[in-house]
């Protein structure tokens, strides 16, 4: 089998499956066209007007246009704000922020990973074992959600910030279903002379659409991946105040990277134009409506939804009422072509490999055109799948896969999933 065949196979799989991964989406063909273009033949080290190699006049225009569109999407004045569009991944974008204003050993205070945070925010294990490079270099501390409400208590974060005295406070995560009070976090940071980084990787598109609290102008840095709710290619935007523009640019190149992926930057520029349209705003609204509806439907079916619901595009579910853990649940769901991921939940009793939750999101199904009407059907397909067989705790992944092959209902449910997705085609023109 060659790569071309595997891509065709994957296209069919993406068309048939019900993708509920909140960090994934489907980009438009125009974005793919830019990313797959001849721009990848270029080396464009350094920034517009300052390239090290000759022949970059078109690259300069592309990168500048991308920057203009990014600032304009979030309503930012180019006098006061700067955006770097070169970091290749969200994680690298965050490292660049640290690299711009921190020294090794400096303290950071960020969201605890099992409470929704991200690896690149200095994550390390309680025994001090490093998982992320950021946890190795910086002295990281973490704030947690309240045990009862499963949401952040900003008074507690303030107390912790006063005790820890970090040089940088970070917000943003991968599995926190609630909106974040950027104004309060910005104030807390200011009161102790710390920088505030808002990592809005997940919510970028929803914030651009004006539907969630904006971190501007409360944050000193705002990072975001472009591939999640923003519906662009893999890439990153790092916003900062003009005073820090030079520091952030140097921290990316030559600090962390060489020549940028100018083809991706072009793809981001295409996606940013789309994100500034009224259609995109309607799309973002529908993403949230769908998530709220799906969360309610799941609650009705007896699932425990973390924090009691959602205010954005993602839902975190404690799966223990249905299966022993998230690994088993996600494997079962994959068997009916419902694609999710296992996820830790606040005050997790399992491990990252066998956490007790699964995470669901609506950006991808909403791009397909699904609306509130389809959410009860999705909830019941999830429930039906998880009810086919109740597994024993600790059943291994291989054992689960083996057992699934003899569950008769699995194929029937998978047919129903395909029937649903075939009503909302993607990439039919490819
Ligand atoms: C997705 C995400 C990132 C970036 O991830 P990459 O895979 O490195 O692009 C960073 N921070 C948060 C909070 C995220 O959700």
Describe the 3D structure.
The chain is α/β, with parallel strands linked by helices and 430 residues long. The protein has 2 domains: 29-275, Aspartate Aminotransferase, domain 2 (3-Layer(aba) Sandwich); 278-422, Aspartate Aminotransferase, domain 1 (Alpha-Beta Complex), CATH 3.90.1150. 41% of the residues lie in helices and 12% in strands. The protein has 16 helices and 13 strands. The strands form 3 sheets. Strands 2-8-7-6-5-3-4 form a 7-stranded mixed β-sheet, with helices on both faces. It has a 4-stranded antiparallel β-sheet with strand order 9-10-13-12. Strands 1-11 form a two-stranded parallel ribbon. α8 (204-208) links the parallel β6 (195-199) and β7 (221-225). α4 packs across α9. The longest helix is centred in the last third of the chain and has 23 residues, at 278-300. It is globular. The mean pLDDT is 96. The chain binds pyridoxal-5'-phosphate. Pyridoxal-5'-phosphate (PLP) binds next to α4.
What count of domains describes the coordinates?
2
Using only C-alpha atoms, the radius of gyration works out to 22 Å
Give the count of helical stretches.
Answer: 16
Percentage of helical residues?
Answer: 40-55%
What is the approximate shape?
globular
Along the chain, the helix and strand elements come as: HEHHEHEHEHEHEHEEHHHEEHEEEHHHH
CATH topology of the largest domain, by name, is Aspartate Aminotransferase, domain 2
Bound molecules: pyridoxal-5'-phosphate
Number of strands: 13
Strand arrangement, major sheet:
2-8-7-6-5-3-4
Indicate the CATH class of the largest domain.
Answer: Alpha Beta
What would CATH call the architecture of the largest domain? 3-Layer(aba) Sandwich
If you average the pLDDT, what whole number results? 96
Kindly name the structural category. alpha/beta
Q: What is the CATH superfamily classification of the largest domain? A: Type I PLP-dependent aspartate aminotransferase-like (Major domain)
The description of the largest β-sheet is:
7 strands, mixed
Low-confidence stretches: none
Percent of sequence in beta strands: 5-15%
Taking the alpha carbons of the first and last residues, their distance comes to 20 Å
